[in-house]
Design a protein that fits this description.
about 350 residues, alpha+beta, three-stranded antiparallel β-sheet, 14 helices
């Protein structure tokens, strides 16, 4: 097994203790891998724990309300992941009900909605301990540096072939696919970082072509940056006399569908304008500048008597565990509102 022996030894001694690694199951590994897409491990851990507590089995997730799935996902971003996860759960629950069991190979997992080649390989190798290649950003970085591989137009295909060869070599030498693939990911996440890699501590440093050439950070070759989508919007923050905020659910077909947010048009209600704040944030390639106008109801009884005319939403407290799915931008914006308009939470 050669160099892979050192990698596996390093992994046994240095691996992080992560909730989905202990006694891995197909369901737990699948949920964790979907959450980890485009998201750092430290961010995912508390979300994963809350999510698994609420939906401990694939059947629970399949039967759960979408609104609850989105609420527990709120803050992770890329909300299509959560919807696809539930779609996949319904397909898997159907398999289990028919007595077909969990998919046992990559091809079977690729039939699950929302599952691509990387996720399929991760579940098969980590949960089932079967030989399967994986290629996420961390593994791509490790393998491309080891071989100093330049993208010739088929770079991804060549890297997938290299990943498959590596896991086969490791298994032939007695290395478990579960441990080997996680070792590659762990190495990329902790030592073989995009910038300033810690080559002195790397178990594969001796055979690394990029390290020998001194150009580690040039691999993998950087992809052209995608253009940012610039969004400017005006939102209306109506606060009632219990300190609750009027929120509306974004409809299907709109950006961030299913999340609850401030209305973009002012609901019809007697209000007092307190002022406005401007916030900027980045969400999945969107650079958003939001001007939030802050209002308080004029009549303490107004909100009790009726909801804003022509609107569909709810009065929601943003002070504790919010019962609906809201994004991080709204939560951060609310902290600004509280700070700059301290009287907005005054009870009447």
């Amino acid at each position: 097994m050669g160099k892979w022996t050192e990698l596996l030894r390093w992994y046994r001694e240095n691996r992080r203790l992560l909730p989905w690694r202990e006694a891995p199951t197909p369901y737990g590994v699948w949920v964790s891998e979907i959450m980890l897409q485009q998201t750092q491990v430290a961010t995912v851990i508390p979300y994963y724990q809350r999510f698994m507590e609420r939906f401990p089995t694939v059947g629970d997730l399949a039967a759960g309300p979408e609104a609850e799935v989105l609420r527990l996902w709120a803050g992770l971003g890329y909300y299509s992941r959560a919807r696809n996860l539930q779609r996949g759960a319904r397909a898997l629950a159907g398999r289990l009900e028919r007595g077909e069991g969990w998919p046992q190979d990559v091809e079977g997992w690729l039939e699950v909605p929302g599952v691509g080649p990387y996720t399929a390989g991760a579940v098969v190798s980590i949960a089932l301990n079967r030989e399967a290649a994986i290629l996420d950003g961390n593994v791509e970085r490790v393998l491309s540096r080891l071989q100093r591989m330049v993208d010739s137009g088929t770079g991804k295909r060549a890297l997938w072939e290299l990943a498959a060869q590596a896991v086969a070599e490791a298994r032939a030498g007695g290395g478990a696919p579960r441990d080997f693939n996680q070792a590659l990911m762990e190495l990329g996440a902790t030592l073989c970082s995009p910038r300033s890699p810690k080559c002195g501590a790397c178990p594969l440093a001796e055979g690394c072509a990029a390290r020998a050439a001194g150009d580690m950070e040039a691999f993998p070759p950087k992809k052209p940056r995608k253009e940012w989508l610039v969004v400017r919007e005006v939102a209306h923050c109506l606060v009632n006399h219990e300190g609750r905020v009027w929120l509306e659910r974004r409809p299907e077909g709109q950006w961030r569908a299913g999340l609850w947010d401030l209305p973009l048009s002012l609901p019809q209600m007697s209000t007092e304008l307190l002022g406005e704040i401007e916030t900027r944030y980045v969400v999945t390639r969107h650079k958003v500048t939001r001007l939030t106008r802050v209002y308080r109801l004029r009549d303490p009884a107004d909100w009790r008597a009726s909801e804003p005319a022509g609107a569909s939403g709810a009065w929601v407290s943003l002070e504790a565990d919010t019962p609906v799915a809201i994004g991080a931008p709204l939560r951060k914006g609310w902290l600004r509102v509280r700070s700059e308009f301290p009287g907005v939470l005054a009870r009447s």
